[in-house]
Amino acid sequence: MSIQNQIETLLSDQQLEELIEIRRHLHRFPEPSFEEHETSAYIRRILDDWGIEYKFPIVETGILARIRGSNPGKRIALRSDMDALPITEQSGLEFQSQNQGIMHACGHDVHMTSLLGAIRVLDQLKEQIDGEVLFLFQPGEEKVPGGAKLMLEEGIFEGQKPDMIIAQHVLPDMDAGHVGFKPGIYMASNDEIYITVKGKGGHGALPQHINDPILMASHILISLQQEINRKSPSDVPTVLSFGKVIANGATNVIPDHVTLEGTLRTMNETWRKEAHRLIDRIATGIASSMGGSCDVEIRHGYPVLHNDEQLTEASKNKAVELLGKDQVEDMDIRMTAEDFAWFAQTIPGMMFRLGIREPGSDQVFPLHTPGFRVDESALKTGISLLSFLSVELLKMTPV
Questions:
Q1: What per-residue confidence (pLDDT) applies to 149?
Q2: Which residue in 97, 183, 351, 388 could disulfide with 89, CB within 3.0 to 4.6 Å?
Q3: Domain spans of the chain?
Q4: CA–CA separation, 14 vs 16, rounded Å?
Q5: What CA–CA distance (Å, rounded) separates 73 from 132?
Q6: Is 18 exposed, middle or buried (0-12, 13-18, 19+ CB in 10 A)?
Q7: Angle between helices 3-10 and 378-395 (to 10 degrees)
Q8: To which CATH superfamily is domain 3-186+304-395 assigned?
Q9: What is the radius of gyration, based on Cα positions, of the chain?
Q10: Lowest mean pLDDT segment, chosen from 357-361, 385-389, 393-397
Q11: Which conformational region is residue 360 in: left (phi greater than 0), alpha (psi within -120 to 50 degrees), or beta?
Q12: Cα–Cα distance between 341 and 346 in angstroms, integer?
C-alpha cells in the first residue's frame, strides 16, 4: 500500500472526529503569547496518552516532541505556534472562546491540531520513516521578539539540528482542500516604531506661549511617509504605517508630548537597516528644527521569511502528488510577518499555506478579526500533507 493510501486509512472518520474535538477544545480555551500554560499542559496530556517522547519546558511553555523512524536518516522538524490574540470573539460558534478578550483568530488552534494529527499518523508509520521527525509546539508567535527566536537562543536544537524545517499557516481566502507555496522571499520583516515627540503645552488660545508637539508630530508623520516611500528601492516592497497617535489634550489644551506607534514592513534586510536610520534622523531632525525634541525607539521584530527554494519546490511537487495539481496553488509575497523566519534563517525552511474557506463560498473570515472561522475539513488536508512531506522529504538526498 502506498504512503498516500496508508495516511488516508489512518485518518479515518473516527480519528478526524477526535482531532476536531481537540481543535475545538483548544479554540475554546485560548491563551495569550508566552502564557500558554493550560494549552501546553493539554498537549502534553495527549502526548502522554499516545506514548510520544517529548522535552518540556522550552521557553516556559514550549514542547519538542520526537518520533524516531525505524531506519537511519536525516532529521525534519515540523512547527506549530500555540498563542492566541487579544480579541473578543464574535464568531457565534458553540465552541467559541470562554476566555474573555482572548481568541484564536489566527488559526493557531488549527496548526496545533494538524501537528498533533501528524504525530498520530507518523507514530504508526515508523517503519516507513528514514531518520526522525521533531515536532515543535512554540509559544509567543504573536509577540516580539517571538518564541522562535527565544527557542533558538535556549538551544532547542543543540546536538539535534534538523536538516530542514517546515510549517503551515491557514489562509482564509483559499478553499479548504487547497494549499499554496511560494519559493524564495515570501513574508516581510516587521519592526515596531515608537516615537515620543516633546514640546511645551498650554492653552490652545495662546499659541505664542507654547511649542506645539501635535504640530511637530503631524510634520513627522507626513515626512516619514514621504521619505520612506521615496527612498525605498523600487524593487523592494515597503510599508510604514502608524496605527496609534496619542496627544491626550483637549479642545483647548495642548499637551507636552505626543506618542506615535507604528510598524515598518519590508522585504530586504539591508534596506530595513537603512530605513531604521532614516526614521530616527527624520523624526529627531524635524522635532529639533521646530524647537522640540524626539525619542525614537525601534523594536526589532521578525526578519524577512525566505522559503528555501529547493525545499519549497520539492514540497510543492509532493503536494501535487498527494492532493492533485488543481489543489496546489502558487502564492504571491505577503507584507504580513511570521517569526518562523527565525528558524528559516538557521535551517533550510519552508512555510506553506492551508486553505480554510468553505469550498464554493464567497464568504471570507479574515485573520485577526472577531468573526474568524475555519472550515474544519481543512484539518484532513493539513494533517495529510504534513505527514506525507515528513516521510517523503526524509527520503530525498539532497532535499
A1: 98
A2: 97
A3: 3-186+304-395, 189-300
A4: 5
A5: 7
A6: middle
A7: 140
A8: Zn peptidases (3.40.630.10)
A9: 24
A10: 393-397
A11: left
A12: 9
CA angle 356, 105, 267 (to 5 degrees): 80
Measured CA to CA, the distance from residue 164 to residue 172 in angstroms comes to: 27
CB 242 within 8 A of CB 260: yes
Report the pLDDT value the prediction gives residue 398, as an integer from 0 to 100.
60
Model pLDDT, residue 336? 96
pLDDT tens digits along 53-105? 999 999 999 999 999 999 999 999 999 999 999 999 999 999 999 999 999 99
* Residues 5, 322: Cα–Cα separation, whole Å: 10
The residue count for the chain: 399
The residues annotated as belonging to the active site are 83, 141
CATH of domain 189-300: 3.30.70.360
- Helix or strand (DSSP H, E) at 299: strand 293-300
Long-range contacts of 357-361 (CB under 8 A, 24+ apart): 357/172, 357/173, 357/174, 357/175, 357/176, 358/175, 358/176, 359/175, 359/176, 359/177, 360/175
- SS3 breakdown of the chain: % helix, strand, coil, rounded to 5? 40, 30, 35
pLDDT, mean over the chain: 97
Q: Does pLDDT of 399 surpass 90?
A: no
Cell numbers placing 190: 516587521
Ordered alpha helix ranges (H), the chain: 3-10, 13-28, 37-50, 108-123, 147-153, 213-231, 269-289, 309-323, 340-346, 378-395
In angstroms, the CA 81 to CA 90 distance is 22
- Whole-angstrom distance, CA of residue 238 vs CA of residue 185: 13
What is the rounded CA–CA span in Å between residue 276 and residue 297?
A: 10
Grid coordinates in use for 143?
509577540
